Amino acid sequence: MKNVFVVMGTTGEYSDRNEWAVMAYLDEALAQEHVVNADRRAKELFATRQDRYSIEKGANEFDPDMSMDYTGTSYFIYTVPLAK
What we know:
By secondary structure, this protein is of the alpha+beta class. Helix content is 25%, strand content 30%. It has one domain (6-81).
């Protein structure tokens, strides 16, 4: 059975945690590359922001729907089996 590799974004902690799907890949290496690029860009934005609301929608070209709070934003891969 094949897998789909879903790049997930996350911000917050505990009950305030928010997760969302960013992109899905059939190739795990491409998903890993996306995680690295999205994470790098999120860290750049976090370092230069004035407050959590100062980052415009679409500022992270690797995650146009990125959300961020005081914890920053991070990315990981969620592996899901692909049904035939």
